[in-house]
């Protein structure tokens, strides 16, 4: 495996003409690393599919099956069509969170640019799905059930919808950046054994934050699929 410092140095050289900060360069570098890792794992898991899965195929089928069941329970049968989007976001966020537990590696989700990008994807997908499903009638979601309250409801709904990417990005960024800072402090003060409990807690935090992000994405898209009342 290429040492992370050499990997970062290479990417910082590529990004230097763009005047991207060091933290931003780290986030971009590790984002590409995680995308490559997920691509390689996908290829290996589906290289020789078997009717009786084993090894990596069995592991990935358990993960994918769990996500698919959760989508079906939360969004219904219509939600199955959005499985690729939600599963991709969930796996990317989870691996991005977990990679920060490896000494010398940086979690992209500890950078606000990464979390904001994921949140904007969810935000845009929500409204694209709504317009695709309901056409012009989708905008009834913003007017409320009483016509004379429509102007007031419109601004309230707009504020509510615009707050979604803000909350999605800040929640994930705050939790992962905070954990990363605490872990760095523990490693600086006592590099042996003392940071271990924080690393174990980091595994739990990584799974919880990926689950929350995926669950909110499903709820938002499900909301756009429903008929306006």
UniProtKB/TrEMBL annotation:
Family as reported in the entry's similarity comment: Belongs to the ATPase A chain family.
Membrane topology term: Multi-pass membrane protein
Gene Ontology MF annotations: proton-transporting ATP synthase activity, rotational mechanism
High-level lineage: Bacteria, Pseudomonadati, Thermodesulfobacteriota, Desulfuromonadia, Geobacterales
Signal sequence range: none
Function recorded in the entry: Key component of the proton channel; it plays a direct role in the translocation of protons across the membrane.
Name of encoding gene: atpB
The protein, known as: ATP synthase subunit a
Location relative to the cell: Cell membrane; Membrane
CC annotations in GO: plasma membrane; proton-transporting ATP synthase complex
Gene Ontology terms describing biological process: proton motive force-driven plasma membrane ATP synthesis
PANTHER family linked to this entry: ATP SYNTHASE SUBUNIT A, CHLOROPLASTIC
CDD domains per record: ATP-synt_Fo_a_6
Keyword Ion transport: yes
Alphabetical UniProt keywords: ATP synthesis, Cell inner membrane, Cell membrane, CF(0), Hydrogen ion transport, Ion transport, Membrane, Transmembrane, Transmembrane helix, Transport
Membrane spanning stretches: 27-46, 82-106, 112-131, 138-156, 176-194, 201-221
NCBIfam families cross-referenced by the UniProt entry: ATP_synt_6_or_A, PRK05815.2-3
Species annotation: Geobacter argillaceus
PROSITE patterns, per the entry: ATPASE_A
Main location, first listed in the record: membrane
């Amino acid at each position: 495996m290429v040492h992370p410092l050499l990997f970062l140095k290479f990417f910082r050289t590529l990004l230097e003409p763009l005047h991207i900060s060091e933290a931003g360069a780290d986030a971009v570098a590790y984002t590409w690393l995680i995308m490559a890792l997920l691509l390689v794992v996908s290829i290996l898991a589906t290289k020789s599919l078997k009717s009786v899965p084993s090894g990596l195929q069995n592991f990935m089928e358990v993960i994918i099956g769990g996500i698919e069941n959760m989508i079906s329970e939360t969004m219904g049968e219509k939600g199955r069509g959005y499985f690729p989007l939600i599963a991709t976001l969930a796996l990317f966020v989870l691996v991005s969170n977990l990679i920060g537990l490896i000494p010398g590696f940086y979690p992209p989700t500890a950078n606000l640019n990464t979390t904001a990008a994921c949140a904007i994807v969810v935000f845009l997908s929500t409204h694209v799905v709504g317009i695709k499903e309901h056409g012009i009638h989708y905008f009834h979601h913003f007017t409320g059930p009483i016509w004379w309250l429509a102007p007031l409801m419109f601004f309230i709904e707009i504020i509510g919808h615009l707050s979604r990417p803000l909350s999605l990005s800040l929640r994930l960024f705050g939790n992962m950046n905070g954990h990363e800072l605490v872990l760095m402090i523990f490693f600086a003060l006592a590099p042996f054994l003392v940071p271990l409990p924080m690393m174990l807690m980091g595994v739990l935090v990584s799974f919880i934050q990926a689950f929350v992000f995926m669950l909110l994405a499903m709820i938002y898209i499900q909301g756009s699929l429903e008929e306006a009342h």
